[in-house]
Amino acid sequence: xxxxxxxxxxxxxxxxxxxxxxxxxxxxxxxxxxxxxxxxxxxxxxxxxxxxxxxxxxxxxxxxxxxxxxxxxxxxxxxxxxxxxxxxxxxxxxxxxxxxxxxxxxxxxxxxxxxxxxxxxxxxxxxxxxxxxxxxxxxxxxxxxxxxxxxxxxxxxxxxxxxxxxxxxxxxxxxxxxxxxxxxxxxxxxxxxxxxxxxxxxxxxxxxxxxxxxxxxxxxxxxxxxxxxxxxxxxxxxxxxxxxxxxxxxxxxxxxxxxxxxxxxxxxxxxxxxxxxxxxxxxxxxxxxxxxxxxxxxxxxxxxxxxxxxxxxxxxxxxxxxxxxxxxxxxxxxxxxxxxxxxxxxxx
Length: 348
Ligand code: DP6
What we know:
Elements: H1 3-9, E1 22-26, E2 29-33, E3 38-40, E4 45-46, E5 50-54, E6 60-67, E7 74-77, E8 80-81, H2 84-101, E9 106-112, H3 123-139, H4 145-155, H5 159-162, E10 167-170, H6 180-183, E11 186-188, E12 196-202, H7 212-222, H8 226-246, H9 249-268, H10 279-293, E13 298-301, E14 308-313, H11 317-324, E15 331-336, E16 342-345
Parallel strand pairs: 7-9
Antiparallel strand pairs: 1-6, 1-16, 2-5, 3-4, 5-10, 6-9, 7-8, 10-11, 12-14, 12-15, 13-14
Helix pairs in contact: 2-3, 3-4, 8-9
Bound molecules: ligand DP6.
Ligand DP6 is lined by residues 31, 34-36, 44, 50, 122, 124, 156-158, 212-213, 216, 303-304.
């Protein structure tokens, strides 16, 4: 499909608005140095720091309103009642917010994604960043960015980063911190001097077979390559921060591609193996390598799904997108640096 057709189809759907609702908007982020593996499941504390770029596409808009007379939370996702694991995660998150706020009222949550859920384009990052902001505002918790990032992390690790725009680093926090929950948060990298774009190559929009949560758990517990990935990732992060400061996209891209491949190698060595990449992903990767051979700066990264995201200079985005659109079955979306989570209060 042509790039322009996908863009025309872009973010859609009515926004959840109305009386007395607090509405928050957040965007997905794509990690260039990945988060893969929790050292503490309950607190969502990662083994390693990670680094991402927040995008300007596929926002999630979430409204929260109190329902004092209700006996349970109501969660609507993309127009339909949430069920199963999705409902459980949102309700558990609201329980945490209520516990911190010393409140008991249930809530009505209405969330609209503009990205296919579970397709490896990180809807849980934008989803929990928006929910954290709206819920914190409604229940009277602090909404300053660092507190919000720590809160969003408890919903989904990568959501800690979507609180901020542009390039963002999420600190794992020291293992011996007195309060490890407080020590693990994201913050923007104010000194990153690169005008980058990410070309998302959407190969398959169906839900994934293994959730990233389960896949991570399995990798940590069984993959002999996990320790090596953790060590490599730590080194990658230090080098990438320096390259971002220096405006060196080539180094940033090379590190990002190797880091993603290392993460997938670690999960493929798990037992049973986790494999998100498909033949179509391999074709897309091959196209990225071809672009490089032709002298175009383009580097691939892949998350918990078959889609490939291509990092390039903003000035090269259209060219890279046009070439990636030649991959059979691919839909291509050009994303650039996007904003952090924002709030608006409507009604009374
Ligand atoms: C591959 O943040 O979705 O996208 O904390 O279990 O909710 P949970 O996981 P999640 O994992 C994202 C993993 C990744 C890499 C990344 O975004 O850093």
